[in-house]
Amino acid sequence: MANQIGYYSLILGLALSFILSAVSIKDFYNNNQGINQKVLSLSFLQFFFVIISFLSLILSFVNSDFSNETVFNNSHTTKPLFYKISGTWGNHEGSLLLWLLVLTLFIFLFLIKSNEQPKKYRILTLLFQQVIIIGFFLFLLKTSNPFNYLFPIPKEGLGLNPILQDPALAIHPPILYLGYVGSSIIFSASLSAVTQNYVSKEWAQHIKKWILISWIFLTLGIMLGSIWAYYELGWGGFWFWDPVENVSLMPWLTLTALLHCVLVLERRVALTSWIIILSIATFILSMCGTFLVRSGILNSVHTFANDPERGIFILIFLFVLIFLSLGIFFLFHKENNKNLDKIFWLSKEASILINNWFLMYFLSVVLIGTTYPIFLDVISAQKISVGPPFYHKLIVPFLIPFLVFMSLGPKLNWIKSKVENKFSLIIFFIISIFLSFFILRKLTPGVLFNTVLISPAFYLFFITAKDLFIKKFKNLPQSIAHFSFSMLLLSILFNSILSLEIITNIKVGEKYNFDKGQIFFQKLEKNKNSNYNSVIGHFKINNNKGKIIYLKPELRIYNQPVTITSEADIKTTLLADTFLVMNLVKGKEYFNIRYQVKPFMIWIWISVLLLSLGGLMSLLKKKYEK
Amino acid sequence: MYGKKVKLRFLFLTLILVSVILSVFLILQSLKENVIYFQSPSEIKILVEIDKKKIRVGGMVKDQSITINTNEVNFIITDFKNEINVTYSGAVPNLFAEGKGVVAEGFLKDRNYFLATKILAKHDENYMPPEVKEAIGDK
Amino acid sequence: MKNKIFLFIIILFFIFCFIIFYKGLNNSNIYIPKLNNKKDLPIFIARDFYLETEVNSEKIFLDNNFYILNIWASWCVPCRKEHPILMELSRNKSIKLIGLNYRDNLNNAKKFIDELGNPYSQILIDEEGTLAVEFGAYGVPETFIIDKNKKIIKKFIGPLNQKLLKEIKLFLK
Question: pTM of this prediction?
Fold first, then answer.
């Protein structure tokens, strides 16, 4: 029953797309003030149908209705209710439905929140958005219908991959999609603004809110994904430069660049072409990410099951959008460069341009690193992969000037300024160099390079901290965001420099000595749970300072589907995480263990949270203060 | 005489152009150095010279070939035509087992001996990395 | 003018990207390894699906016939999809289909056969998955063709489809 309701509401939703487009085109040529009420109600109706469809899929999951193929493939009666529900979007079909849901919700919100904007601009945005929505409807119905009927009805489902049964991963996709889809609004709005020649200060103020919304969600979504990787994958890290991770980072970079550029546009009409290009690029990169992840073209640790038909559909859709936006951009856009010449080299605008340059550089590194293997494979049939060293080598050195500019940029005034308080800026710089030198000399051998790297991070940290606490609430969101970014980088840098990792094979009852302590594998305990059996290792770790830590990593053998997962045991303190994970080498009595001490892990998550808080505050602030 | 505006714009454009060229050059350069090629045991057998660069080797873990001690895991990767001995000290993924596909990353010591620095994990037990498929088949 | 050239270059660039991605996609998922040296059939003892008795492999492949060994499981979704093709194959009298039930719950497996029909002339149980390894299987489903000299001459990884069915039929002639 729920199956049919879900399916037919999807079809109704698609039909509404066409009706909505027709009605709004008619309204476009109408000389009325404001949008016809009909358009609003139709848009709401469309959202309503998609949410009905989504709810009926959730219902099928909750009831374990295995006549639905998606449920059969991804659920199981013994699964806890929470994961039954989150299983709805933990698979390809359901996640696309969620994507569609957010698309229709956002365009409806856009319509009711943009009352002061010109009518034609609003209608055109709606139309562009409908192009995207129709594309997704067709994709869903044609290649990945979540309501496929299975007959005869199987008694039991196949279960959700246990590695996906994790609270962080349960909310990761919805949050990330809010970010991705938010960028679709920016895309449609900027195309429509170009055609209406409405790229202006007012437009900047209005689109800034949407940019902030999707930026906040994207930031949080990326963080949740990396929290999942850290706790569940047991690889002892939080960022692996895996293609799927890169793909979410790319729109984040363009979005961050866009966020800063819009601040310029808010003041004066400059950089218009650049802003439009960034808005288009952000959404295209999000779509490109969907393509790369869903089509299975990339060889990554977490791709969905691949089906070439799906890949081809998204690919064609993606390029339709690219050519559409290119066409509109070249046909309608009138370059407005007369203001560019007035950008004085010592001004906030110039520093934002520098920031953009760096962000674009990081983007191209990530983009090339991610797609190069595909190109090479097709052209020369060589299989290659691009590893973390590539990214580190190209990105880390450029962080140094980036951080210095980031510390100084916000000090400058708009249009033209002089550097004030030169003295304190220099003093801070010297302090940070000395501080990082002395800290590092105590802790690690590779002092010289690390000092060069960490001092700018400290510099940014001090300067933003000073702004945050001494200048008191002058442009608070920006101070918070920059401050937490410096915190983020500091914790990442210290985390990578000071991490300790011990990997060894060990039997029950054995002790392993390393230069800073000893690991003792005390005993093995076996447990039976409802949907898995577990083996728990008891480890006692002595470090040289006489501190004793007990860690109990776990191996879980799930029965549906049969999968072994390792649950790392992580003890978190404010200073460092201790991390122990064990793996079974099949048929052998040895266990392979990985023991890690990772300093400041928790601060990475805290600073990302603060970063998005900065975004949130900026969103809630009524008017930009001068 | 060009106006100040034109000059400034010209300066701006050249700056952008130079920086773009520089960064593209830099990226491609380090791409060359950091790319990891994938090879099958059979391809390694016919190598003319042993490179010092990092590579990936893929195939199946040969039956009865895993031996393990405190410091390292030894096993044999086979593509059913040729074999290579692998020594590895590091974390082993759960799906690593005899008779299963494997991708190891590391350095080639000679044509029969590979020192792995990483074994790549995959989520799905029935999933076979495309490189491994190709290594075992088609050649 | 300048703009037009620029636009042209950009469009060319994107078309190039499109072609690359398109080709990248078409690397097919179903993969057929070419067995250079024909592999001997492993010798094993397995339990019969219905009789629950032990059978010797030599007795299974007794006739002077082509055999097709198909590894399947009730929990495997692609198996469900390839099942009609096996049913079609089973109508061909010149071959015998042997099923190898891989790491499965016997009840579920029986339900699966009851639901979808039984294309196999005999089904063997591989509860621990060891037999499949002896055949050199990577996963489920997988299909092997065994010739009259009791050699494995071909194997298909992944579900069979109409195209492969034609190939098999051609092969048997």
Answer: 0.82
